[in-house]
Amino acid sequence: MAEQADRISPVQKLRRLMNDSDKIILGPGVYDGLTARIALQAGFDCLYMTGAGTTMSRLGMPDLGVATLNDMRDHAGMIASLDRSVPLIADMDTGYGGPLMVGRAVEQYINAGVAGFHIEDQVVNKRCGHLKGKELVSETEWYARIRAAVNSRAKTGRDIVIVARTDALQSLGYEVALKRLKGALELGADAAFLEGVESKEQGRQICADLAPAPVMLNMVEGGVTPHFSSQEAKEHGFKFIVYPGLALGPVYQSVAAACKHLKETGDTGNVYQGTQGQGPKELFMVCGLKEAIEFDVAAGGELYKRGV
């Protein structure tokens, strides 16, 4: 049985988590190899690749629709490859174009090892869901994106979880957003994602209105959505809760403080404070140093035989 469990694909594992009525899926927001490794070390069942974090870390730009399919796919593939036993849900933004591009994006995310993704109904030149002034495509174009995603998945003969996200709440209101999500689910999306939930009551309502479909909550600290703990989200009916800013905020604060200290004092202080005095080696251990050495030695390599 253990051997069979080892053969479960990431998407199979994600679907099992989705079918577990006692569980809410926590998606810690990661945006590069190091933050992904840290989350893996913490023992999460699932990872979430934030599009905003990917855009900022990979391009040094804000989340304004500038990341391309290649940017997002390559980043997602790298993160997914770090531990194939842990499913990755990745942002797919708008699908990067018309139906042909959406289909291509789905196929490439599958090939990259991504277990699930969310796709939204903003125009291609999108912006972060917690900024103002978002523009949406028509209902017809939105449904074409979902059909393209579902058809592309079927064409590959392989699986990936499709999460339909709408940003319609802010400009078109709850009923329109609900209609768009219901339509996407009817077309074959596996889960729904109402971006920018404005109250806890609204969160409970969207879960009830879409039941029994699983619903995702985007917990953006400082955004338009009130704070939910994972337990609160579960009690309100959500199946997923993702935290895109989990690593971004702490990294920004700590690195900004370290840069300020270096600029003002001409010294770094103890930049590895909290790593038991082991310096960079502790970080390398988080990123698989021990496993890399063991692999090399098992293959007959000599370079790391006596350690590092």
Automatic annotation (TrEMBL):
Gene Ontology MF terms: methylisocitrate lyase activity
Catalytic activity: (2S,3R)-3-hydroxybutane-1,2,3-tricarboxylate = pyruvate + succinate
SUPFAM superfamilies: Phosphoenolpyruvate/pyruvate domain
Pfam families xref list: PEP_mutase
Residue ranges the record marks as coiled coil: none
Residue stretches spanning the membrane: none
CDD domains: ICL_PEPM (cd00377)
PANTHER family, A to Z: PHOSPHOENOLPYRUVATE CARBOXYLASE (PTHR42905), PHOSPHOENOLPYRUVATE CARBOXYLASE FAMILY PROTEIN (PTHR42905:SF2)
Protein name: Carboxyphosphonoenolpyruvate phosphonomutase
Source species of the chain: Staphylotrichum longicolle
